[in-house]
Amino acid sequence: RVLELFPKNIWSLPVWSLLMADDEVYDPDFIRKLFASGIGTRNVAARTSALDSIALCIETWAAAFQTASEERQQARDLLKSYLPTLLRLSEACPFHDVRTKCQGIIQAVQARGVRIPLCKYDGPSNFISTSKLVPLNTDDEEKRELFTEAFLVDNRVSNMVRVMGYHPIYLSCFLRFHTYLMFQDGPLPLHLRQYIAILAAARHRCLYLVSLCETSFLSLGGDPKWLEGLEHVPLKIQALNDINKILAHQPWIIQKSDMQTLMQPGSNSWSLSELMHAVVILCHYHSLSGFAHGCALNPEIDTADGHIMRPLSQDVETELSPDSSRRTSVSGLSSSISTPRGSLSSEITLTDDIADQEVAGLRDEIVETLREERSDDETTTELELREFETQSKASAELGAQVGNLVPTNGLARFIEEPEFQHEDFTIAGENTSRTFRVLDYSWEDHGYSLANRLYPDIGQLLEEKFRLIYLLTYQTFGSVEDVDTSRFRYAVWNYIHCIKGIYHDDYHYAEVNKLLHIPFKKYIKTVTCYPERVTSADFKGFMNVFSCSEKVHINLLLLEARLQAELLYALRAIMQHMT
Length: 579
Hints:
23 helices; two-stranded parallel sheet; two-stranded antiparallel sheet
């Protein structure tokens, strides 16, 4: 008799729905948890429950939006906020049930007469065709599991993770480090980590990372006012601007006084552990900005620049359209408009099939060099230092700057002194003392232990990444197999350190000219010094014989080499302050 008092289908209703009060349908905190905790789980029953509740919320908002009720404006805002998230989940979630359910919800909303989002970009990268990337539903169990792990951490498989998916052994290592740095226990609050990342990415005008971190910042309870500009954040955070700009553009000028200023006694003082955490985040996101620009990562679908609102027809308009000038009629959930930035995916195929004789000849020449036994001719420290200086001066002649970039896309609000940009590290006469000698301060002997001491385990996680990418090889060079590429990788690594003023006394710098041709050097310098200037021509112009996977491999090598270089300067300054 008691059971007869309830609707017959009560026991089929989801747990979230049974627990959801009427006012929670409009509660932002409850909805955030519903999308994050409800979907970000391996438990199929829990996901099903959360998805049914999400469908109920969306349907309630869509119904309210079509009425003159007092909830109409709130419903409109919620639809604008969460429909892009549903679109992302319908296309870029590793769980098939989530993709299918979200597609159904979007179609149901569209049937109610509400305009739904449209992907603004075709795939994760503007330089690499989506068909060449590892699919989310790949048959490769290792890669599929990595995508799932990434989703469970941040409720998304980002475009960055999709592109890194070419190299699962590296991606696994990267995710361990990134998750620990940004989401697990540490000296800094979670939302503050995201804001520091925003400041770092903004130095290189990396809209992709800034938008992604803004979304995470808000989802972690960050104050929306902070996103209006630096003047709205506490002075303690503003104080990071000096080391942020120096490490991003001219790390060799950082001094222990820069660290001392941040740790002066007072209410805005940084502790050593907090500063260590902040420094790693800054350096990490400076380097990630290079990877994002170097691979032309497109904005995530649910960020501000990742979608537009699609019309129901040419003569139907609703209030959900933020930009009527960019409307386009489409059908199907996965349609997108053409990207504003020239895409290589339809212009070139990065294989030997398109390499002309000159490029193929260059490949064969480098392979021949790699297969030769390196000469063990005796050399001296003086001769090697002279060769290092030669490379440093030659680097200064590549990619000379033409004026200063003006911050765009609203990023100026996160940047102080935008005119402070990269200036080449050159060595001449009295400036020789500025050279950073690894013999005096190295990652292995000094930086690793200091990082671990101030921020437990971070040194080990960094070391795993550095060592892995430094040694990672598939024994191929373009289409040529069974090639020991170690000398080529070492040349890339040491050339980046050379650009940053770091001298390795045990490296033969004459190797650089033998293995790295000028277009490749130019690409390396652009990605590591002013990545916001990378163009499709730059990406196409270096090592045409490389596959997409190999070009991503190179960009990962650039990322880690630059990260270590910045950290060496920062850690040495912290150590000097401590002593």
